[in-house]
Amino acid sequence: MEWLSLLLFALLFIALLIGFPVALTLAGISLLFALIANLFGAFDMAFLQSIPNRIFDIMGNETLIAVPLFVFMGIMLEKSKIAENLLTTMDELMRGIKGGLGIAVILVGMLLAASTGIVGATVVTMGLLALPTMLKQGYCPKLASGTICASGTLGQIIPPSIILILLGDVLSSSYQQAQLNQGIFSPETLAVGDLFVGALFPGMMLVVLYMLYVFYQAIRHPDKVPNHIGNPVPAGLGLRVIKSLLPPLLLIFLVLGSILGGLSTPTEAASLGAIGALLLAAINRQLSLATLQDVMRNTTKITAMIFLIFIGAAFFSLVFRGLGGDDLIHDLLSDLPGGIFTAMLIVMAIMFILGFFLDFIEITYVIVPVVAPVLLMMGVDPIWLGIMIAINLQTAFLTPPFGFALFYLKGVAPPELKTMDLYKGVIPFIAIQLGVLVTIAIWPEIVTWLPSVIYNN
Questions:
Q1: What's the DSSP call for residue 178?
Q2: What is the DSSP string of 291-318?
Q3: Which helix (H) or strand (E) holds 147?
Q4: Is the sign of the CA dihedral 372, 377, 378, 382 positive or negative?
Q5: Is the dihedral of CA 269, 275, 280, 281 positive or negative?
Q6: What sign for the dihedral angle of Cα 382, 315, 28, 319?
Q7: What's the rounded Cα separation, in Å, for the pair 23 and 315?
Q8: What CA–CA distance (Å, rounded) separates 311 from 320?
Q9: Per-residue pLDDT tens for 285-296?
Q10: Which of 152, 175, 373, 399 is geometrically suited to a Cys-Cys bond with 123, CB 3.0 to 4.6 A?
């Protein structure tokens, strides 16, 4: 009766495509399916007795406390006009370089990613600030929109990324489960900080390749990428650079430096980041009672949505396991010709396709717990697997016609930006990300070397 687990997954996917609320769909369909399967003797309702413990584990998970703190930090920074000051200053600083504004957008996107970790906020903010300026200066609409979308999705991979925190939590459980299944009763652990460190080199690779692509377009097609070379340097630029760059750089150093240096956990670093964001808003004279209430209200909404999905996913995973889905997936992936290579290829392809339709939270808490234990039992490195998944989902965020980053930008773009220009503009950046994904697949050391150096010393 293991095939019932696949039927459960198919019904769940159809319901999500129809547009039902994710968390309620996960829990509702799983419970309904469990009741029907129990009537036919295919499911033991005793599996559901562990639901209260699962919920208490979620609510008491110290790692997940970082989620509302980082969300608070990101929303507060969005309100403090840091992005606006950064973009203006970086544009002036890059005027002596071909494609300077495009490169400035990428650098600001990188800094915002390292400061907030929230893709939607970054894409919307950059779309409001940078897109009208780029179009006004004569940038090709395809290149302008593609650059902004790609830069905004850097928040998926550059720490502190919300997706890396959630992936770290799921992969940690999957890693321990895989080791216990192999008879290892003193299992090694996987920390969110491991994924943060492993993501640094791939994230920087994407930033450099994005900038090289914009620079290449500026040389090859100067009509599509206007240059400001020869314009006089604005007065007081040095002071503005210090004022604009120093605060976010200090915040990044405070958050990431404390994690990488082993001084704090991601949760503790997130609390430092939240306090830092409050201080930056106060310094920029953007902190008021109304602003604080707005930020806290939005943080509560986002956090409640995420944790409700966690609870719904707990129902799904228990019912899926009770129907024998874990064993079925293990047999399917283990028996594939080509071993780990074929299994990883199929899993990555499925996640890429599902990323067109589902949000990364849904994929992280529905798909990853099903396939990760099997891949980890086959000998896949957990840090490498986490970064591969993160970059894969980042690519899916960009891919037409359903890429979420495209929807975010289209919602705030000027009317003259055509949807087809937006779709065509992201294709080169998708190719870059797939190239990085293949490179990491061939040379896993790009991901695993830095964590081994930092945590083995």
A1: H
A2: HHHHHHHHHHHHHHHHHHHHHHHHHHHH
A3: helix 141-152
A4: positive
A5: positive
A6: positive
A7: 10
A8: 14
A9: 888 888 899 989
A10: 152
